[in-house]
Design brief:
- There is one protein chain.
- The protein has 245 residues and is α+β, with helices and mostly antiparallel strands.
- The chain contains 10 helices and 11 strands.
- Strands 2-3-4-10-9-6 form a 6-stranded antiparallel sheet. A 3-stranded antiparallel sheet has the order 5-7-8.
- A hairpin with a 5-residue loop joins strand 3 and strand 4.
- The chain is globular, with a radius of gyration of 27 Å.
- The relative contact order is 0.16.
């Protein structure tokens, strides 16, 4: 027919259509993977919850150290010792290792136990001097007790103290303990900001919630180098304890 030209668009624009099909063939699976990862991260965040000052458990009658242990003198004259809630919330579920035997005598600041998670560990030091009377061996096979109840059921030792009054003078009670926990939480935020950039940049999305709140169990996703730095900055009694007057 005069005045009519027929063009096969699949011949003239075949390359363009092929490129478009390939582009979407690559883009859609990639988008699905990213979306799935985002949902997984959100699910992790929702299951853990935010670590805030108001969420911390700080019983008012306990003596808290600046290296994240506590002690409490009972009517029997024995003193319980254990880990504070902030340390438990930061690390997540851990196993207790190298428990001392009853009858052993230790000094304030001596090695008390190790907490271990996937071959990463932190050393815990004693808040008081004295003799180990009883070890809570229940914790070795039921590590979740420490996480769920670090003060009532999750104590580590009962000890007969040698110098209770002088050794606990610099420890924190009630309002002071609450204030210090808030200070430590802020210090931990600064610690994460520094170390994530160096050691674990990929962990940032998991350990931080929307709005910048820290997630529970923040150290769980960090490598052993971060755990070692945390040990030195937060659990070293020589650096953190204020000498008694």
């Amino acid at each position: 027919m005069d005045g009519f030209n027929y063009n096969n668009i699949f011949e003239t624009k075949g390359i363009e259509y092929l490129v478009t099909v390939v582009f979407f063939a690559v883009l859609i699976p990639f988008w699905i993977v990213l979306n799935r990862q985002g949902k997984n991260i959100k699910r992790i965040q929702q299951s853990l919850g935010a670590l805030t000052p108001n969420s911390l458990k700080i019983p008012q009658g306990l003596f808290f150290t600046r290296f994240h242990t506590w002690t409490h003198l009972e009517r029997s004259g024995l003193a319980k010792v254990g880990l504070d809630d902030l340390l438990v919330r930061i690390t997540g579920e851990v196993k207790l290792n190298r428990i001392l035997e009853p009858g052993e005598k230790i000094e304030k600041g001596d090695f008390l136990a190790e907490i271990v998670q996937n071959e990463k560990l932190l050393k815990i030091y004693s808040p008081i001097s004295g003799e180990i009377i009883e070890a809570n061996y229940l914790l070795t096979n039921n590590s979740e007790i420490i996480t769920e109840d670090p003060y009532t059921k999750g104590w580590i030792y009962k000890m007969k103290p040698n110098n209770w009054i002088s050794e606990t003078q610099s420890y924190l009670l009630a309002e002071d303990a609450t204030t210090y926990s808030k200070h430590e939480l802020n210090r931990f935020k600064d610690f994460l900001a520094r170390t994530m950039k160096t050691y674990s940049p990929d962990s940032a999305m998991i350990i931080m919630q929307d709005g910048g709140e820290i997630m529970d169990h923040s150290l769980s996703s960090m490598n052993d180098l971060v755990w070692k730095d945390f040990q030195d900055e937060f659990l070293n009694p020589e650096r953190l304890e204020i000498p008694a007057n």
